[in-house]
Amino acid sequence: MHNPRIYGKAPFSIAVIHGGPGAPGSMAPVARELSKHRGVIEPLQTADSLDGQLCEMRIMLEGHGDFPVVLIGSSWGAMLAFIFAAHNPGLVRELVLVGSGVFVESYATDIVDTRLNRLSAKEQREARILMEALDDAELRDKNAKMGRLGEIFTRADAYNPITLETEVIAVQHRVYRNVWSEARELRRSGKLLELGSRILCPVTAIHGDYDPHPADGIREPLSTVLRHFEFILLERCGHLPWIERDARDVFYQALTEILENAGA
Question: Is the whole model's pTM more than 0.90, yes or no?
């Protein structure tokens, strides 16, 4: 796969950061929409460590981007963009966190149960079997099972979707396992949230009211550590606002206003 993927025309001062970890390609719809009027970079994370992904992102942005950039991260990508902005404050003009993971461990305790409770009995059984398989150290190739679990949870995460197609290119369980274990420990230790004190640019979180990641897990912690923070709650919206029939237009309107205010 070509990496990074480039959309629109220069200057390329916007980068969209996908989730997962290990789910490259999921921000393509946002990149295409924004590229109608702007140049957009879509870095695809392949490294299987947190430091590796940060280094990889910087190399791709240095090679193709126009600094300072606006980083728009989705889900895990929002957290990765947050970490990147803390380590490279001079390179980021604005940070947008879309459907971010939570920043304090206590807010994460009910996410899986929330998802499971939204599923049919059949889907619940399949999801539990898949989660058990992914925890099995003896099972080698887990990409297909992780991909299927992602499909099930995408359905649980959506409020009124236009589509459930996420455009993920290739699920990478090894990347997910290694990077998320590091990131979760960073969150458990409190060091993830502490990184916010090093971010100098404005930060906006856009979050759906139906997202299983509780809004308070983003809004409350970040409001205590960030210098310039705004929180936008979208009604009738799940984890991926751009697939939501009721929230898609409002999401893109909010994103456009942020970009215009940032001069991007």
Answer: yes
